[in-house]
Amino acid sequence: MKIAVVILNWNGTKLLEQFLPSVTQYSNEATIYVADNASTDDSISFVKEHFPSVKIIQNTDNFGFAKGYNEALQNVEEDIYALVNSDIEVTENWLQPILSLFENEPKTAIIQPKILDFKNKEYFEYAGAGGGFIDKYGFAYCRGRIFDSIEKDLGQYNDTTEIFWASGACFFIRKEVYRELNGFDSDFFAHQEEIDLCWRANSKGHVVKYCGASTVYHVGGATLEVGSPKKTFLNFRNSLWMMLKNLPKDQLFSTLFVRLILDGVAGIRFLTQGKIKHLWAILESHFYFYHSLSKFYKKRDENQSEKYYRIKSIVYRYYVSNIKTFQK
């Protein structure tokens, strides 16, 4: 099977300088692309000069993560897409276990490797860790990361197992499935679009897996800081959009109602912490959601996955029951 490693870039010369060498060194099986979102720095000239074997796709604007990849992948014909953040360091033999899974498991459509923290390599990284799930109310969590509690990597997630969503930080998908699903939802711009795509894949009978035999290291927050109110806005808005699109019809409005209340609780928590900008980001996300209800309701498919969650409320388990690790 042919594989394309596609790195989305926007004004990321320093990141490319630091992390592209590991990708080129350990990805002999792949064709490597840098998909550029109309950078205004010297990203493209840097890649051309120092990595002449890397192919360049130039988008006409900064389309964000979702549309940026949708535009770029129209020009990529390899069988497997490996969508890799520009702040990812890969390791030796990182591709072989994943390619083996694709070759031996036809129903497996999406795969995520183990994602560890580049800054503290003994620990999992926030964005994906050991594979993702969501609760009934759309709150995402991972094996190795629940909210802000991060586990140390002790080999507890060295397995290969089915998950609900794979992290967009390092996201493998069959080309045919990506195109069947029409790629990411471009309206999301960034954040939660990979969970939405995985949910749609699950609803169509495709399998999403985690492969602990492959390891990468992720900086996280390199393009948008973790504490950014914009990140808060995108996460809350996009999560509501995702639920509106994908919840089973008989659960749609009751589940969304509870989620909106829980968002209000999160807003009050930000208020008590003095994080007024984050409170406003949640309010703004809700206004945006109400304004776009009709548009996103029309995006619903006929059949939605009934088994999208494993536990009812990760918020209750974490904050009330004080359960901080996935294994518990």
Summary, kept brief:
By secondary structure, this protein is an alpha/beta fold. The protein has helices at residues 13-25, 43-50, 64-72, 96-104, 175-180, 193-203, 229-246, 252-272, 276-291, 293-297, 314-320; strands at residues 3-9, 30-36, 55-58, 80-84, 88-90, 108-117, 120-124, 132-134, 140-142, 145-146, 149-150, 160-162, 170-174, 207-218. The chain is built from eleven helices and 14 strands.
Protein described:
The chain is 38% helix and 22% strand. By secondary structure, it is of the alpha/beta class. Helix 6 (193-203) runs parallel beside helix 7 (229-246), helix 7 packs antiparallel against helix 8 (252-272) and helix 7 (229-246) packs parallel to helix 9 (276-291). The strands form 3 sheets. Strands 1, 2, 3, 4, 5, 6, 7, 12, 13 and 14 form a 10-stranded mixed sheet that branches. Strands 8-9 form a two-stranded antiparallel sheet. It contains 11 helices and 14 strands. It folds into 2 domains: 3-218, Spore Coat Polysaccharide Biosynthesis Protein SpsA, Chain A, CATH 3.90.550; 229-320, no CATH class.
Descriptive keywords:
2 domains, globular, Spore Coat Polysaccharide Biosynthesis Protein SpsA, Chain A, 14 strands, 38% helix, alpha/beta, 11 helices, 328 residues
CATH superfamily of the largest domain: Spore Coat Polysaccharide Biosynthesis Protein SpsA, Chain A
Could you say what the CATH architecture of the largest domain is?
Alpha-Beta Complex
- The number of helical segments is 11
Radius of gyration: 19 Å
> How far is the first residue's CA from the last residue's CA?
38 Å
CATH class of the largest domain: Alpha Beta
Round the mean pLDDT to the nearest integer and report it: 95
Per CATH, what is the topology of the largest domain?
Spore Coat Polysaccharide Biosynthesis Protein SpsA, Chain A
Tell me the count of domains: 2
| SS-based class | alpha/beta
Strand fraction: 15-25%
Oligomer: single chain
Helical fraction: 25-40%
Q: Summarize the helix and strand pattern as letters.
A: EHEHEHEEHEEEEEEEEHHEHHHHH
Largest sheet: 10 strands, mixed
Low-confidence spans: none
From the spread of the alpha carbons, the general shape counts as globular
Strand segment tally: 14
